[in-house]
Amino acid sequence: MLQTHLEMGRNVSLDDAPKIRILIVEKHAAVRRALSDRLSVTPHFEIIASVEEPAAALSYLDAKNGQEGCPKAPIVVLFGLQNGTDEQLFKTIDLVEQMVYLSAAVIVLAPFADEVERLLLHQAGVKCYLLKYIDSARLIREIEAAATRGPKPISAMS
Fold first, then answer.
1. Angstrom distance (rounded) from CA 85 to CA 99
2. Cα 84–39–54 angle (5° rounding)?
3. What is the average pLDDT across 4-28?
4. For residue 73, pLDDT beyond 60
5. Which of 1, 31, 50, 52 has the fewest CB atoms within 10 Å around its CB?
6. Is the pLDDT of residue 37 over 90?
7. Going edge to edge, which strands form the sheet with 128-131?
8. In 65-114, where does DSSP find H-type helix?
């Protein structure tokens, strides 16, 4: 979009571009704070909220869904996984499907790679499955990509 404006000879700055709105879902307060701090320095990102429980994120997304002209509806949800039982994984898949249904682009941050989990989450609509120790520059690129296009191929993972 920015490239189109540049090609047309328009003078465009990042301040003119709409901000990518982000909702962070993570159990650990220190991780939520670190993600928020890392991403808030990016001028075209706006951290909408940082919540501990996925249900709180659903409530937040549902409250904003369908409100015409609602400027605070999140575009990207960073969802921190807590690897656990199969039952917890299936609850997570259900939550991700609900978030996607509510028009969120979901990026999962996992503590370690699990191929079955990754595949199931991609099938549920996750845009990207990343490891939690991702560097800031790559995380920023992945958020930008998730906000602007469809899901990555299943084979892409870090």
1. 21
2. 35
3. 70
4. no
5. 1
6. yes
7. 45-51, 20-25, 76-80, 105-110, 128-131
8. 86-101
